[in-house]
From TrEMBL:
PROSITE patterns: HAMP, HIS_KIN, PAS. This is histidine kinase. The chain crosses the membrane at residues 171-189. Its EC number is 2.7.13.3.
Length: 584
């Protein structure tokens, strides 16, 4: 080896040796300084802990734990961290963290020594703060026993800064020692470093969720294969994430569209998922992201869920739910699912309230129709039997029983027609398929009055239109006319009034048709139910006059079909006013 080569070889070695010596000196000095600084800080934090303990000890003796905790929470010395720990290790206050998120401190060395009655100071690395800290634990005795521990902690910022400076100097010394070696490799490093930095920046953006980041791939070099691999991984990750997102959104849309409530409960009773139908059935606030089974309003459902978790069985039961003063009938189905050791209860809830109400209504309706049909049929059969038994040969009896046949047949026909009309109207309400054509409401009122004119003359009653404002609405003119005819017919048949007044008045957003009589009136207890099917204030009188009990029910359903309502205002001896209100 030539002398020049030896010198060139020895020079970087010498620089490296000097760098190592310098680094050792710096580390030694830093260690000495750290020992001196830590000893001083330990004394200071011990004095501070004694002072704070003297302040909060009377509070704790008096049982004012919250007051003592509040003092620690707003600890004035910002460079110190104050922690108040119970004898069982539970943190009840911390000036620098949420005590609910802190682990039990019973196993911390300084806490154990303090609970043994020994104030102590130590220095160790804090996992919570991710730095070295000086801890002072001061026992607070109540009744001769340590019931609480006050712990003060101070950060070794100065020591850390000194050590960091020593490390920087060490790095500098080492850098000087390898300067010439780095100079030789500089060209190669420049060619590698820039692509690596670009790749690193791209990888960081991808890690933050930016999967649209375009990765720059060098044309050649050592980094090319790495960049190609990262790019492929990014595209694969994006594809998988898009698929998962699409599947999740699809499930969300599916569950949101379901009329049944879908809920997924943990064993603690917390709903980890629920759809919009569940919000509606259980009255969950639209902004709420959590729901607990204990607040569902149904002890039966809570009991079913407990049994399902306990026995691991599927459940299916009809339950009741009290919510906002209303009672719902629900069908609950579900089963327990297990995944990665965790158990979940999947529930589907079907609201049967309307179905049960419809079944009850259908049963009542069939019973009422059967009862109402039985009366005219009995009359018809009785008249036929009488005629067959010889009344047919007696002119007077024949005339009597033929009159009964005619009357009861007409009554039966009217009942059938009203039942069919009501069924057709309800079908339109359910299906939403209704005629919505514009027509003149005042013309419909006039047509209804003209239709009833002959009946009014036969009854000796005067029909009088007191007001008929021009109004145009959308709907079915035939049904509106039928509703007005029913109201006029009701007044002619039952009121005994010499005059019936009909009026149509228009407001800004509605039209009101009123039929007023001056007859016997209706008692208040009957007004509330007068629009029910087959309801009559005087059933015997209604049957005698041939009433079906469905006329006013038809009026109510026609009004509701077109977004309106029907009402009555009456008092005994003061006549009645029946109103139909329709939106314009």
């Amino acid at each position: 080896m030539k002398s020049r080569d030896k010198v060139l070889f020895a020079f970087p070695l010498l620089l490296g040796l000097l760098a190592v010596i310098s680094a050792g000196t710096l580390f030694f000095s830093a260690g000495k300084f750290e020992d001196s600084y830590v000893t001083s800080e330990k004394r200071n934090v011990m004095l501070e802990a004694e002072t704070v303990a003297d302040v909060i000890r009377p509070m704790l003796v008096a049982g004012k734990v919250d007051e003592a905790a509040a003092y620690c929470m707003r600890f004035p010395e910002k460079s110190l961290r104050a922690t108040l720990v119970r004898a069982d290790g539970v943190v009840i206050a911390d000036s620098d963290a949420d005590e609910r998120e802190l682990d039990n401190h019973a196993t911390r060395e300084e806490i154990k020594r303090a609970l043994a009655g020994t104030p102590n100071v130590s220095s160790r690395f804090s996992a919570t703060k991710n730095m070295r800290m000086i801890y002072c634990a001061m026992p607070i005795e109540i009744g001769g026993r340590p019931e609480f521990v006050l712990r003060l902690a101070i950060q070794n910022r100065e020591v850390d800064a000194m050590i960091a400076g020593a490390k920087r100097n060490t790095v500098l010394a080492l850098a000087l020692g390898v300067f010439f070696s780095l100079a030789i490799a500089l060209y190669i490093m420049r060619r590698v470093r820039i692509p690596l930095e670009q790749l690193q920046e791209s990888a960081q953006r991808i890690s933050r969720g930016d999967l649209n980041e375009r990765i720059s791939i060098p044309e050649k070099g050592l980094v090319r294969e790495l960049a190609v691999t990262v790019s492929r991984m990014k595209e694969l990750l994006k594809s998988q994430l898009d698929r998962i997102t699409a599947e999740r959104n699809g499930r969300e849309r599916l569950f949101a569209a379901l009329s049944e409530a879908v809920l997924l409960f943990s064993e603690s009773g917390e709903a980890v998922y629920f759809n919009s139908a569940a919000r509606r059935i259980f009255g969950i606030d639209p902004s709420a992201s959590k729901f607990d089974l204990s607040r569902c309003g149904s002890p039966e459902l809570i009991s079913l869920a407990d049994g399902a978790f306990r026995e691991g069985r599927a459940i299916e039961a009809e339950i009741t739910l009290e919510n906002d003063g209303a009672t719902r009938t629900l069908l609950a189905k579900g089963g327990v699912l297990s995944h990665d050791g965790a158990r979940r209860l999947l529930l589907t809830i079907t609201d049967l309230t309307n179905l049960r109400r419809l079944e009850s209504f259908r049963s009542d309706f069939v019973a009422n129709v059967s009862h109402e049909i039985k009366t005219p049929l009995t009359g018809i059969l009785g008249a036929v039997d009488a005629l067959e038994s010889g009344a047919l040969d007696d002119p007077a009896l024949r005339e009597k029983f033929l009159g009964i046949l005619s009357k009861q047949a007409k009554r039966l026909n009217a009942l059938v027609q009203d039942v069919l009309s009501l069924a057709a109207i309800e079908q339109q309400q359910v299906s939403g398929e209704k005629e919505m054509l514009p027509f003149r409401l005042d013309a419909a009122v006039e047509n209804a009055v003209n239709f009833c004119q002959s009946r009014a003359e036969a009854a000796g009653t005067t029909l009088k239109i007191t007001a008929n404002d021009p109004a145009e609405i959308k709907g079915d003119s035939r049904l509106i006319e039928q509703a007005v005819i029913n109201l006029i017919g009701n007044a002619l048949k039952y009121s005994g009034s010499p005059t019936v007044e009909i009026s149509l008045r228009k407001t800004d957003d509605a039209a009101e048709i009123a039929v007023r009589d001056f007859g016997v009136g209706i008692a208040p207890e009957h007004c509330a139910r007068i629009f029910e099917r087959f309801y009559s204030a005087d059933k015997a009188h209604s049957r005698e006059l041939g009433g079906t009990g469905l006329g006013l029910a038809i009026v109510k359903h026609i009004a509701r079909l077109f977004g309106g309502n029907a009402s009555v205002e009456s008092a005994p001896g003061k006549g009645s006013i029946f109103r139909i209100t329709l939106p314009l």
